[in-house]
Write a structure and sequence with these properties.
heterodimer; A: Helix Hairpins; 6 helices; B: mainly alpha; 20 helices; 4 strands
């Protein structure tokens, strides 16, 4: 398990820093950073499509969470552009720090995101009492005047 | 001024949370907060202040106060005060007032902030507070409506957040000024978020159900000020960047026509008012430089109309034709309807003249059609029967709210008294005349029921992707 994790870390770090991973990305002629960026946008898109296509209200809520995970990952990626090191001021010279601003900002957004998620799940729970299947179309039909 | 501004922004949040701990002082505190905003906004407008604050340093919160924000804050103050007065004797719980005060504070924050992230935070907190206000009765329907609202608004805000990240990536700043050099896709993403939150054009189709199914005071708050939190940043962008201006004006005309197109055929009072909100927001965006004044008159009128519509014997216009309402409610309804149709002596007239004067040539036809549609749809209210015997007396708070809102409408005439020239006065009267004629000849008889399929939840989300395509097409063209 531990080894796998280290490997994952290495792959991620090299992706972000722009080295090729196992020759994969460069063989395709793509910059590795854009591979990661494409994955992040794919996550956002998958979440968005999930909100539309899933019928169960619970699944829709979770799909929205996937979408917000994608957005958060994008902020982390933007923060990692200048470098990967934690931005703590040190004496020794030129270090490629990560940009702290997007990280700080996305921390706020994460908090807001999960509180909204919690609120929505409470709403879903309340609705589940009278609509046990939680099918959105059914709930909608019974509550549109 | 810095200290006053910061204290004024922090006050509602402080009062909101601490007021929850105090026994039975919720409504007084809420009214006090609204009054503080009233004083602040009048000060800003009368002194014609305009300043930018940067709290902390480069990456801190940026605030920008000018007369545009002054008018929006004034709207917020008057509408909140009216709603609190309306609820004064209704035994609303502390929870209701807490949410109202927090909502008031966040809407104020939107009207003064000048960076993308403060805007994001304020808009999201507005979403939460509105969710709690709509779900307050805790029936299944209210929970579903609230959930639907929060879902749509949160998804839109995720697009917005993505746009904000792109802006930062490009210019290393979240301030509004960074949009100058921002890539076009960032602007498209930001617009999807704000247009949806503000209930504009096709992305605003979530609004009619939400606003019509909420409780009366909540509807008044939502239509009066909360939707304006989405359109204020759009107006601000349009004023700051000439490139964005045509985009905002286009959506203004589009939403004005779409909303009024639905409103003329609607037979349900509250739904008609809600569709009309979609339309009137278009007038604010069609001429952003004078949008503040239009937003003020619309906020006053629409909350008055929603409060009055909540005191009618029925929501169905057909039933209301046979069941006379009380004469006094009719008077309030008629005054508000006259103002929104642009009848002289009320400030809706001045706002309409001012907006029409600031249109670009390609907008004129569309906006005049929208004004005609407004006259048609409010003829439905004006020509309802009324009787002097009071079967169901209205709540006492209703009159206090009406005096404040309608008094504000008359008083706001002073902002643009130059509007009263012969030429200016004739045109709205002709529009109203034609509108009433069209009402009696055509619209009174037709009963066309427009399909509601586009208001289904999945379509509301799907429309965002269409809007995104449209925006990409527009900004790249």
């Amino acid at each position: 398990m531990g080894d796998g994790r280290v490997l994952m870390d290495q792959i991620l770090a090299s992706l972000i820093q722009g080295h090729s991973v196992l020759g994969l990305a460069n063989a395709e002629g793509l910059a590795p950073k854009s591979v990661l960026e494409a994955c992040v946008f794919a996550t956002v898109l998958i979440g968005f499509v999930g909100i539309i296509l899933k019928r169960n209200l619970m699944m829709k809520t979770l799909a929205m969470d996937v979408m917000s995970t994608g957005v958060i990952a994008f902020y982390v990626l933007v923060a990692a552009r200048p470098g990967l090191f934690t931005p703590i001021l040190a004496e020794d010279g030129d270090i490629a720090y990560a940009d702290p601003v997007p990280q700080a900002v996305i921390l706020t957004a994460i908090v807001i995101g999960f509180s909204i998620q919690a609120l929505m799940l409470v709403g879903v729970m309340k609705l589940a009492r009278d609509n046990p299947t939680l099918e959105t179309s059914e709930i909608e039909r019974s509550h549109t005047p | 001024m810095t200290t006053i501004t910061v204290a004024w922004i922090a006050l509602p949040l402080f009062i909101g949370f601490s007021g929850y701990l105090l026994p039975r002082a919720g409504r007084q505190l809420a009214l006090g907060v609204a009054l503080s905003s009233l004083v602040y906004s009048l000060f800003v407008i009368l002194e014609d202040l305009s300043f930018t604050l940067e709290l902390l340093d480069n990456f801190g919160v940026t605030l920008m106060v000018d007369s545009l924000s002054g008018f929006f804050i004034l709207t917020n103050a008057l509408v909140t005060a009216a709603v609190v007065l309306y609820c004064w004797q209704q035994n609303k719980s502390k929870f209701f007032y807490t949410q109202t005060v927090i909502l008031h504070g966040c809407v104020n924050a939107v009207f003064v902030c000048a960076d993308l992230i403060s805007l994001y935070v304020a808009l999201e907190v507005i979403g939460i507070a509105v969710f709690l206000l709509i779900a307050y009765p805790r029936t299944d329907r209210s929970i579903w409506i609230a959930l639907r609202y929060l879902f749509v608004s949160n998804t839109a805000m995720l697009f917005y957040l993505l746009g904000a990240a792109l802006v930062y990536q490009h210019s290393r700043s979240f301030a509004f000024t960074a949009l100058q050099t921002a890539p076009m896709d960032a602007i498209a993403l930001l617009f999807v978020g704000l247009l949806t939150k503000g209930g504009i054009f096709i992305s605003g189709l979530w609004l009619p159900l939400t606003h019509s199914e909420s409780e009366t005071p909540v509807s008044a708050l939502l239509s009066g000020v909360v939707v304006k939190s989405g359109i204020f940043p759009l107006a601000r962008f349009a004023l700051m960047f000439p490139d964005i201006d045509p985009l905002v004006r286009f959506f203004g005309v589009g939403t004005a026509l779409l909303g009024v197109g639905y409103a003329v055929f609607e037979k349900d009072t509250k739904r008609m008012l809600a569709f009309h909100t979609v339309s009137q927001l278009g007038f604010v965006l069609a001429a952003p430089e004078v949008g503040g004044f239009y937003a003020l008159t619309h906020g006053l009128v629409k909350s008055a109309l929603f409060l009055a519509a909540g005191n009618l014997p029925s929501r169905n216009l057909k039933v209301l034709h046979h069941e006379p309402m009380s004469r006094s409610v009719w008077v309030a309804l008629a005054i508000a309807s006259f103002s929104i149709s642009g009848f002289p002596l009320l400030s809706g007239f001045g706002a309409k003249v001012l907006t029409m004067k600031n249109l670009l040539p390609w907008q004129v036809v569309g906006m005049n059609v929208a004004a005609l549609g407004t006259a048609i749809s409010f003829a439905k209210f004006i020509f309802l029967p009324s009787s002097s015997d009071d079967k169901s007396p209205v709540k006492p708070g209703f009159w206090a709210a009406m005096v404040l809102l309608l008094g504000g409408l008359v008083f706001a005439n002073v902002v643009y008294y130059e509007a009263y020239t012969l030429g200016n006065t004739v045109k709205p009267l002709v529009t109203i005349g034609v509108g009433w004629a069209a009402y009696f000849v055509i619209f009174r008889r037709v009963s066309l029921k427009l399909p509601r399929v586009v208001e289904q939840f999945d379509h509301l989300i799907g429309v965002m992707s269409l809007l995104l395509m449209l925006l990409f097409g527009m900004v790249l063209a």
